[in-house]
Amino acid sequence: MYQSRWLVVACISLSLLTAAIPPLCAQTTPAQHAQKLDELLGQGKLIGAASHYREVTSKQPDDHTARLALGLTEFFQAIEFLGNANYRFGVFNNSLTEDLLLVRLPVPENPKPDQVSYDELRDVVEQFQKRLHAAEATLGQVDTSDVYLPLYLGRVRLDLNGDGAMADEETLWRLMQVV
User: Fold this and answer.
1) Most CB within 10 Å of its CB: which of 99, 105, 126, 148?
2) How many CB atoms lie within 10 A of CB 9?
3) Which three-class secondary structure state does DSSP give residue 116?
4) How far apart are CA 156 and CA 144, in angstroms?
5) Biggest distance spanned by C-alpha atoms of the chain
């Protein structure tokens, strides 16, 4: 009788433990990726999205939908980085910059911009280029024959001025209207 109680307790404990652990081979569906990406990008959590999809792709290298989500997030991070630099150094839209695609980002005017040296400006361009190359490398690994990832660009938020808040003016669709 005493042994059978322990056996019952052990069986129940084991079943509860295994129920709490997700199966190792469980794949996230494209719809789940889309929902997660929409949630993170809609809150402007680009670092969280990149971290999440790096983890997914490291565990599931054949998940090309997750790789696409990572590449898009890396691209958005590059744009956000450039917006932060434009704000920091006081680059804003005017007749002098209207023909320069990369500096036409709709960042608000900085009332106290930092002075920029040639080396700092060169570093910004190099960092932006490095980030674009990383996104391109990630996107280049996507097998596009079986990828489905709806993305609602109107909900993507970027912190273009680096203040930690994503204003209504800092959405991807507004940026696309200007550019």
Assistant:
1) 105
2) 10
3) coil
4) 22
5) 89
Backbone φ, ψ for residue 74 (5° rounding): -65, -40
Tens-digit pLDDT profile for residues 1-41? 555 555 444 445 444 444 444 444 467 788 899 999 999 99
**CA 39 – CA 45 distance, rounded (Å):** 9
**CA pair distance 149, 70, nearest whole angstrom:** 11
Cα(119)–Cα(123) distance, rounded to whole angstroms? 6
- What DSSP designation does 166 have? -
Amino acid identity at 111: P
Specify whether the CB–CB gap between 59 and 123 falls below 8 A: no
Q: 92 has which bridge partners?
A: none
Residue positions counted in the chain: 179
Q: List pLDDT tens digits, range 35-93.
A: 999 999 999 999 999 999 999 999 999 999 999 999 999 999 999 999 999 889 887 65
Q: Note the pTM of the prediction, 2 decimals.
A: 0.79
Identity of the residue numbered 150: P
Q: State the Cα–Cα distance between residues 45 and 115, nearest whole angstrom.
A: 29
